[in-house]
Specification:
By secondary structure, this protein is an alpha/beta fold. It folds into 2 domains: 2-209 and 411-434, Aldehyde Dehydrogenase, Chain A, domain 1, CATH 3.40.605; 213-405, Aldehyde Dehydrogenase, Chain A, domain 2 (3-Layer(aba) Sandwich), CATH 3.40.309. It has helices spanning 2-14, 20-36, 38-49, 54-80, 117-128, 142-155, 168-175, 188-199, 223-234, 255-269, 285-300, 310-313, 354-362, 377-386, 421-427, 452-461, and strands spanning 83-85, 95-102, 105-109, 132-136, 161-163, 181-185, 205-208, 213-217, 245-251, 304-307, 325-328, 345-351, 369-373, 391-394, 408-409, 415-416, 418-419, 429-436. α5 links the parallel β3 and β4. α4 (54-80) packs parallel to α5. The longest helix has 27 residues, at 54-80. The model has no long low-confidence stretch (mean pLDDT 96).
């Protein structure tokens, strides 16, 4: 790792600010590689999961990346342009500008839940900004990690882009390297460790973490529409998505109707679970057991666990597919209301007034995503203005992350910094301020020894 880092540093010093044509070439190579290996990417990710819906992989790990590259190519020239900035009257006719320069070598630590997309998406931004990059993918998806290393190795020299595979000890050492910027995607607990390691080198970090992303359903909002959009977001990748709806705040009077509609829609989306190619498995036995423990803990503490698929709940099959479950009568001390779920379990919390619902969200760490379903403009405006979250979708779920012109990132425990589109270009660039003095200027009036002229200038400035 250290040798690769030094090799990339030397290559960067030889070409510290690649021109537009070079950057577009790297993006073209990346786009062709992805397009030429769609079936292999889908097959490999599915093998890592035990089963991963091919449609979901093409949507989230392939199409999203192609779209992001197209967007980046279309706007990169404008992003790279030198920006003229205003000059205060007393400094004219000088000139101000900002130049966006590559930082150098970027480290990327990617997670297992979208193992290809979340390794390549930050890479797109890093390359667009003119950097070199080293990637440490997750050990929980070893086949995809090796495939990523192989595919990138075919189109990039190691001093351009390198993939480092290995377990947690390798990730720990990787996070301690003297990168010029480090992006980590994963859990909040590991994010703290990554930030501590990076701090030793004063390495700037972008942390894409997680948390419990709430859904607020307003009174009178059509429950069928809400259920469809909530479940399509919740059950994508079997809930193993950092911005998946984590729990629902529903009007108390409509709670039973909400449960019925969620059940009806879920069974329509997925008529069966274990033999359904559209439904993804849980990544590992350990994570399956963790989700089962959340259910057991909730049940033991008085929650009602609603089996949407009771006929499949006790199936003795060799699979890690977990049928979706709704959980009601939840309490704050239950693990399912304290931990990020990251699976197909969906608690419902009743509320009496909008203030109650908003207080419930505000009393907890800022989530990575926030969802509100309402046709009332005042409700939407209040939630948008008063609740802090990394991002938000109104009358839908997940869709804000698909918008290439919107930054993606968390706040507080859900993350630091943002990327995607121009936000990614900016994250991996240094905005260098430049002041250009003109030949004719009043700079000499500020030289010592100070006299009456400096007093007049200070009076003017103040």
């Amino acid at each position: 790792m250290h040798d690769i880092l030094q090799s990339q540093r030397q290559a960067f010093r030889a070409n510290p600010n690649p021109p537009l044509a070079v950057r577009l070439n790297t993006l073209d190579r990346l786009s062709r590689m992805i397009a030429d290996n769609v079936d292999l990417i889908c097959k490999t990710i599915s093998e890592d999961f035990g089963h991963r819906s091919g449609v979901e992989t093409r949507l989230a790990d392939v199409a999203a990346l192609i779209s992001e590259i197209k967007h980046t190519r279309a706007h990169l020239k404008k992003w790279m342009a030198v920006e003229r900035r205003p000059v205060a009257l007393q400094f004219k006719p000088a000139h101000n500008e900002v130049r966006y320069q590559p930082k150098g070598v970027v480290g990327i630590i990617s997670p297992w839940n979208y193992p290809f997309q979340l390794a390549i998406s930050p890479l797109i931004a890093a390359l667009a900004a003119g950097n070199r990059a080293m990637i440490k993918p997750s050990e929980l998806t070893p086949r995809t990690s090796e495939l990523t290393k192989t595919l990138l190795g075919r189109i990039f020299d190691e001093d351009e882009v390198a993939v480092i595979t290995g377990g947690p000890e390798v990730a720990q050492e990787f996070s301690m390297l003297d990168f010029d910027h480090l992006l980590f995607t994963g859990s909040t607990s590991v994010g703290r460790l990554v930030m501590q390691a990076a701090a030793k080198n004063l390495t700037p970090v972008t942390l894409e973490l997680g948390g419990k992303s709430p859904v607020i359903i307003d009174y009178d909002y059509p429950l069928k529409t809400a259920a469809e959009r909530i479940l399509s977001g919740k059950l994508l990748n079997a809930g193993q998505t950092c911005i998946a709806p984590d729990y629902i705040l529903a009007p108390r009077a409509a709670l039973d109707d909400t449960v019925r509609e969620l059940t009806r829609v879920c069974r329509r989306f997925y008529p069966e679970i274990h033999d359904n190619d559209d439904y993804t498995a849980i990544i590992s036995e350990r994570h399956f057991e963790r989700l089962s423990a959340l259910v057991d803990d909730a049940r033991e503490k008085g929650a009602e666990v609603i089996e949407i698929y009771p006929e499949e709940a006790e199936k003795n099959v060799n699979t890690r597919k977990m049928p979706p479950k709704l959980v009601t009568n939840v309490k704050p001390d239950m693990r399912i209301m304290q931990e990020e779920i990251f699976g197909p379990l969906l608690p419902l919390v009743p509320y009496d007034t909008l203030d109650n619902a908003m207080d419930f969200v505000a009393d907890r760490p800022h989530p990575l995503a926030l969802y509100v379903f309402s046709d009332n403009k005042m409700v939407v405006e209040r939630v948008s203005n008063e609740l802090l979250a990394g991002g938000m979708s109104v009358n839908d779920t997940l869709m804000h992350i698909t918008q290439n012109d919107l930054p993606f990132g968390g706040i507080g425990e859900s993350g630091i910094g943002a990327y995607h589109g121009r936000a990614g270009f900016l994250a991996f660039s240094h905005a260098k301020s430049i002041f250009r003095q003109s030949k004719i200027n009043g700079r000499a009036m500020l030289f010592p020894p100070y006299g009456k002229s400096i007093e007049r200038i200070l009076g003017f400035l103040s």
